Amino acid sequence: MRVTLRAILVIVMLYTIALIGQVGYAVYRHGDRAPDQMRELLLDAFARSREPHVALLASDVLYRPVFHWTKVDQAVQDAIDARETSVWREGSPVAVTYPYALTAMYATKLIGVRLSHLLLGAGVILVLVGVSLVDGLVARQIRKVNVERESATIFHHAQRLRKASVPLAALVYCGLPQPLDPAWVVGPMAATLVLGVWLQAKYFKKYL
């Protein structure tokens, strides 16, 4: 139960930081064109998806609780429709805030799609982690037979490296307000995770 709550908390924190980064940069860099720019990034992310239906599902899973169930998307749509009528007033609270909400809606879908890219690479990463774990345990056995020194410092540093690799990679990829091939993120993330697991296995306690 505690692990599940911690995982949910980490996901919420990552989403919040990535969303603030995406929306903040888009508004600062593009001003009134922020929604259009975010929509272009979303389309680019969909185009890079190997499994479009998975990307669509991931974007909806993240989008619906935040904007659909809260009726925010309906309010934004009403504001867009009102622009074509006489009730629209430039400078009103609705006119001022709706572009930011629309940008956040596109950014949320973008974060969901990019998370799906990372999830689709999880299978290969797990295989690499398994290989590194076995190889690290073999290295540990060799160290044990040769009576080599053990290092708790290396073990704990490797543990921190392993724990930080996935959240950090997800934050960078989901929060980056530029088009990016997921391979540039999945590759370093996998290498860091594999290295952390291998070092932990090698420098695990000599005697159990």
Task: Describe what this molecule looks like in 3D.
The chain is mostly helical. It is 80% helix and 0% strand. It has helices at residues 2-30, 34-47, 52-68, 72-82, 93-120, 122-145, 152-175, 183-202. Helix 1 crosses helix 2 (34-47) and helix 1 packs across helix 7. The longest helix is centred in the first third of the chain and has 29 residues, at 2-30.
**How much helicity do the residues have?**
over 70%
What's the alpha carbon Rg, rounded to whole Å?
Answer: 22 Å
Order of helices and strands: HHHHHHHH
Main sheet attributes: strand count, strand direction, barrel closure: none
Q: Which class of secondary structure composition applies to the elements?
A: mainly alpha
Q: Globular, elongated, flat, extended or rod-shaped: what is the shape?
A: elongated
The total beta strand count reads 0
Instruction: Report the end-to-end length measured between terminal Cα atoms.
Output: 28 Å
Low-confidence stretches: none
Q: What's the tally of helices?
A: 8
Q: What percent of residues are in strands?
A: under 5%
* Overall pLDDT metric: 84
